[in-house]
Amino acid sequence: MTTSELAARSRISDVDALRGFALLGILIVNITFAASGYPIHVAEDPAYDSGLDHAVRWLSSTFVDMKFYLLFSFLFGYSFQLQLEAARRAGAQFKPRMLRRLGGLFVLGWLHMILLITGDILTVYALIGLILLAMHKVKDKTALIVAAGIYIWLLLAMGSTGLLMDSSTLLDPAGAMAAAQETTANLAGGFGGVIGEHLKALPLYGLSIVSMQGPTTLAALLIGMVAGRRRLLSGVTGHEPVLRKVQLIGFPVGIAGGAIYATAGGNGHTLAVLASVMTAPFLTAAYVATVLRFLHTTRGAAFSKALAPTGRMALSNYIGQSVATMIIFTGVGFGLVGQVSPLEMVVFAFAIFAAQLVLSRLWMNHFEYGPLEGVLRGITNKTRPTWRKLPQTV
Considering the chain, what is the average pLDDT of its residues? Predict the structure, then answer.
């Protein structure tokens, strides 16, 4: 095996391990919307009002919320560049391939958020991916300027809104509580009630995409594309000085912003959200640096081997997480919605992810692609889906 092939294999392993790590964070966030009807209405369940409950929510808001979808988006942009280069090597036109891929993601995402869980990131990637596709020939400097411009715009727009308008006056605590109770009851019912709640949440989710999640996703995609061009995750040893610098800056800034967000009221206050939006990229970058440094230690190598298969079939695992939470919490399955504390939600999240680590390893031992990855690859390349294991060469 040549040096370049070894570097490519290292790159793939690191990217997949990071993607697997991101899946855990995304699950910790998403499970709150599957296990209770209160978060979607920006309300807290009065049944879980202990100091421990508040502490768990605070820790999640500080260290998890808004961080991991940015990492997932960065890696999507990184992979976008790899797919562009793969198309060139294959002598295929990139634009038609990517349009088919984005179309497949949109359909999967739409079905996902209607049938399985409130909210979805795949439809966001499909729509924002069209912008990335239109910009895939821009210079690195232009892409980074646009990404920075997005955050400057959010700072000005959200900052002025937060200063000129008291967001608390827009909230109706009694109405939110009643709506949360109704949502919880519907999620505990049959399949029709579950789908009905998912449909009712679409306007609010759409507003979130337009106002905050869509723009920040585009910024992360553009930064990921530039990183892919420069092969920033290729041949990482874990000893690069820049990783330590990213940690030294990212952790203090990111944790401070997350703490402000959690303490000031979370999604119920515009300035609190702004604090998280502005600082989340710092904490996300610090997480990436920390994971990369750890994966290249003796102990971390075992974690890399465990995470990489999960990340290689990230699409299947992302959808699989929603299937699991639907079975556990809604009336379609065991109906535990509204009956688990914030700490128990986190325990469920780790249990689901642990199962995915095992199942992903077993699947990837026998197949080249995950279940949905094989389907999406077929759509992208306009071929029959295949999952067969490719022969190993040295």
Answer: 91
* Domain contains 387: no
Q: Is residue 394 part of a domain?
A: no
Whether 311 and 17 have beta carbons less than 8 Å apart is answered as: yes
Tell me what pLDDT residue 92 has.
Answer: 80
Range 115-128 average pLDDT: 93
Instruction: Tell me which H or E stretch contains 142.
Output: helix 140-164
Range of the domain at 33: 3-381
Residue 78: inside a domain, yes or no?
yes
Report the domain count for the chain: 1
Mapping DSSP onto H, E and C, the string for 182-193 reads: HHHHHHCCCHHH
Span 331-366, pLDDT tens digits: 999 999 999 999 999 999 999 999 999 999 999 999
C-alpha distances out from residue 307 to 108, 150, 153, 233, Å: 24, 32, 36, 16
User: Are the beta carbons of 274 and 160 closer than 8 angstroms?
Assistant: no
